[in-house]
Amino acid sequence: MNQKYLVGLDVGSSSVKASLVNVETGECAGSAFYPKSEAPIIAVRAGWAEQEPQMWWNNMKLALAEAMTAAGATGDEVAAIGISYQMHGLVCVDKNLQPLRPAIIWCDSRAVPYGERAFDELGHELCLTHLLNSPGNFTAAKLAWVKDNEPEVFERIYKIMLPGDYIAMRMSGTANTTVGGLSEGMLWDFRENSPARFLMDYYGFDASLLPEVVPTFSIQSQVSATAAAELGLRAGTPIAYRGGDQPNNALSLGVLNPGEIAATAGTSGVVYGVLGDVNYDPKSRVNTFAHVNHQPAAAGLPSDTTRLGVLLCINGTGILNAWVRRNVAPEGISYPGLNPLMDAVPIGSEGVTVIPFGNGAERVLENRETGCSIHGLNFNRHTRNHIIRAAQEGIVFSFCYGMEVMQQMGMDIQTIHAGHANMFLSPIFRQTLANTSGATIKLLETDGAAGAAKGAGIGCGIYRDGAEAFASFKQLAVIEPRQADREATRAAYDRWREVLSRQVRVE
């Protein structure tokens, strides 16, 4: 049997993407996503966000069929399947493995009071030392909401799972999960290296609600005959990898070792770094989860297999750049057209400082909502070009401000990996980030679904490790810190921090 393809599925809240990766070349042979317009989110009340798991399945089938057609592949040629998925969701199924209600997804905020109450009543130190986070608005707190508000549903729950667990279960008929999945739901105890019984006991959950825990890279289950017929795959095809979207994005960018950073800068920005020790931020300004290659000490492995993903989210990123293009830049200008305007202004924008936090409360500011603001404008000196450059510099500085939290946790940041997309298309943005952080930036051609496919290749033994799986990386550019410009850039960053400190009164 000539099994020459790996399938990666990326189950997002807006669409499901499927990619087929050629085992020999490591290149994407075909990809597709569904729906072609953004998938609906059910919002019965303000702050609620739900989706039907069946919708994910239907979209996955369509995307997979199109991707296989694009690659000219048959089901017999698929060696293994990997799954990436939207994090922090809650799927509740009965004994027949049928969903009992729509999934409560990551951006639903109804469970915030449940997490806050648990944090206060159990104690901050207990939660942070064992969960590495506040219980927050994660999967465990969402299940507590179901228990209190839908007791008839809660009584019928056989297993709870994350969105990726559900897709794997539909493909195999087997319910299981991973340490990474449990950690992102606040259901993994890093001190005990086991499910978080103390939090489950507090909420009144029986441990039997959790599926079996399987290694992230392993033959987790196999495609059933029923699913194979529905999907056009071979019965017995192994499902060999599963990871939340941000850990999987880091894997897709080759970020597996301490000190490496994966960054994205779309509407909002994410900085995801790998830590080699169990640690946490006492102010919960960042979230810490098990990374895809974390191996609990309970498995008898040495301590240097500790790999935690530290997640920083900045809300006011690309959305600020888009606002500036629409409202400040000349009418009709393109994003590349902003570059010569910014080039006309020196580093530091001649004293103009932009605080970019205008897209809601920022976790890195301890959930303060400061709004976006412009400082230092001189009407006789400054032009729109200064504001455009200062906005991009302000976004970079917000990234570096959050990365300082990671450094306080013991992370030695040396390399930033990013896809060649969104704000990383801007030469000034990426050079300012390199100059401010002192890190080397590597721009790579990749995507989450292709990364999940390569994860499956590791899980089923086709690739020896991540280095071999991603040896075919297309590195598009390397941006080194420009030493001649670092002093001016750091001076601008110090001014930005001083303005922020006055505005929000944080150290």
- Biggest sheet strand order reads 17-18-16-15-21-22-23
Q: Roughly how much helix do the residues carry, as a percent range? A: 25-40%
- Rg value: 23 Å
Give the class from helix and strand content and strand pairing. Answer: alpha+beta
Mean pLDDT: 95
Shape: globular
User: Got a strand count?
Assistant: 23
Largest sheet: 7 strands, mixed
Report, as a whole number of angstroms, the end-to-end distance. Answer: 61 Å
By DSSP (H or I, 4+ residues per run), the number of helices equals: 17
* Low-confidence segments: none
Strand % is 15-25%
Task: Write up this protein.
- The structure is a single chain.
- With 507 residues, this protein is α+β, with helices and mostly antiparallel strands.
- The chain contains 17 helices and 23 strands.
- The strands form seven sheets. A seven-stranded mixed β-sheet has the order 17-18-16-15-21-22-23, with helices on both faces. Strands 3-2-1-5-14-13 form a six-stranded mixed β-sheet, sandwiched between helices.
- α2 packs across α4, α10 (245-252) crosses α15 (448-459) and α13 runs parallel beside α14.
- The longest helix has 25 residues, at 384-408.
Question: Would you summarize the structure shown here?
Answer:
With 507 residues, the chain is an alpha+beta fold. It has 17 helices and 23 strands. It has helices spanning 53-71, 112-122, 124-131, 139-149, 151-154, 163-172, 179-184, 197-203, 225-231, 245-252, 318-327, 338-343, 384-408, 427-437, 448-459, 466-469, 483-504; strands at 5-11, 16-22, 28-34, 50-51, 78-85, 91-93, 103-104, 159-161, 176-177, 188-189, 194-195, 212-213, 217-222, 238-244, 260-265, 269-275, 287-290, 308-314, 353-355, 373-375, 415-419, 440-445, 474-479.
